[in-house]
Design goal:
This protein is mainly beta. The protein contains 1 helix and 30 strands. Strand 13 and strand 14 form a beta hairpin.
């Protein structure tokens, strides 16, 4: 008889939970733009969301504790002349946020302590260099004032935000639309995915290709890719039959994927979020009502399905809180900010405490001891009763 062995993992029981209604941000008109970015950015101070705006582009920045119903007159950041497509807070300064727009520009904003009291129209810096709309932004993880932007002109630009100038312009690598662009952990490499179905690892200083893999996913829908542990790459995309896939690659030998798994036939693009501390990757599909999460390890099949958080309403976007904004004393390992049609709902990912099991075990053992003591007492009484009867019978004889 064969027994199925369950793979040992500290994160097998991670579970997601939406917060109570009064801890959500309500009555917000989330942008109706069809663009595959997160539409939301968060840090330990603020949450920012791209919202609908007439005659230009705008996004809302709220202090994290300003939950509940948001007033219609809440001031926005509204300096763009076209819809905003992507926003990202600076990892080195919680008051700085970048925005990319259909108006071909990138703007850097400084949010005052405590949030906005009047609309913010004037950016600290305006970065101009793209000839088409700018849909992807990513701050350098370790160097101050370095921002990467990718536009629909198939160009990646690395900006020195301090002086408002382009330092590196990568304009001859991508023959088509760029679907995703991100840094590795120390910022020594850039990873891009493109409409030509190729993912590329780039040298940000030289703007040259270090490694590339063609036809990572056969389908024609957008591919997203992120660096995971040990320089490996996780990509999400679609098969030729339009099934959603997740794959893991080793750029040192880009031939075959280490693993390629088919998930379902939904049409939403999967946005991957990787947590290097736990090795967990969260896949949030645009238009889905669930977040799947997997553990990435060194043993086959490398990407192990853990569980799925499901809710009734679909997500229009997703913000991902940096580690320093989590309540680790409550065993929180990740927090997402899910955008609904008219609100933003925080979702908390928690690892159950081992201590709970210990307490339970402790309670169980105490319970067992108590039951045994009771049994021993009953047996003693029975023995005494029998001894008494034996002696009575002996005296009669």
């Amino acid at each position: 008889m064969s027994r199925k062995v369950v793979r040992a993992s500290k994160f097998r029981h991670v579970f997601g939970q939406g917060v109570k209604a009064d801890q959500c941000y309500d009555d917000i008109r989330i942008s109706q733009m069809t663009w595959d970015s997160n539409f939301c950015s968060v840090n330990p101070k603020f949450v920012a969301m791209i919202v609908d705006a007439s005659g230009g582009g705008a996004f809302l920045v709220l202090p994290l504790n300003k939950t509940g119903r948001i007033d219609m007159s809440q001031p926005t950041v509204c300096g763009h002349t076209g819809p905003v497509l992507d926003i990202e807070f600076c990892p080195h300064n919680d008051n700085i946020i970048a925005s990319g727009s259909e108006d071909c520009s990138v703007m850097i904003w400084e949010i005052p302590e405590g949030g906005l009291v009047t609309p913010l129209n004037d950016p600290v810096v305006k970065l101009e260099g793209h000839s088409k709309r700018v849909g992807i932004l990513s701050w350098h993880p370790t160097a101050h004032n370095v921002l990467m932007s990718a536009g629909c002109d198939n160009v990646v630009i690395l900006w020195n935000v301090a002086c408002g100038e382009a330092m590196v312009r990568i304009d001859s690598v991508h023959p088509d639309l760029i679907y995703s662009a991100c840094w590795n952990r120390d910022g020594s490499q850039i990873l891009t995915s493109c409409k030509d179905k190729t993912i590329r690892v780039l040298d940000p200083r030289k703007g040259t290709v270090i490694a590339e893999k063609e036809k990572t996913h056969e389908g024609s829908r957008p591919v997203k890719a992120v660096f995971v542990s040990d320089g490996k790459i996780l990509s999400t995309g679609f098969s030729r039959m339009s099934e959603r896939q997740v794959a893991l690659w080793d750029p040192k030998s880009f031939g075959e994927p280490l693993t390629l798994q088919e998930l379902d036939t939904s049409s939403g693009v999967l946005l991957p979020f990787f947590d290097p501390d736990t090795g967990i990757v969260y896949l949030c599909g645009k238009g889905d009502s669930s977040i799947r999460y997997f553990e990435v390890t060194d043993e086959a099949p490398y990407v192990h399905y853990l569980s799925m958080y499901s809710s009734k309403e679909s997500q229009k976007g997703m913000g991902y809180m940096p580690k320093r904004g989590l309540e680790v004393n409550k065993c929180e390992i990740a927090r997402f900010y899910k955008l609904h049609e008219r609100k933003c709902e925080p979702i908390v990912m928690t690892v159950p405490r081992k201590v709970n099991t210990l307490l339970k075990n402790d309670y169980n053992s105490k319970h067992e001891v108590h039951a045994l003591q009771k049994e021993v007492k009953t047996l003693k009484e029975t023995v005494e009763e029998l001894t008494k009867r034996v002696s009575e019978l002996e005296s009669k004889n």
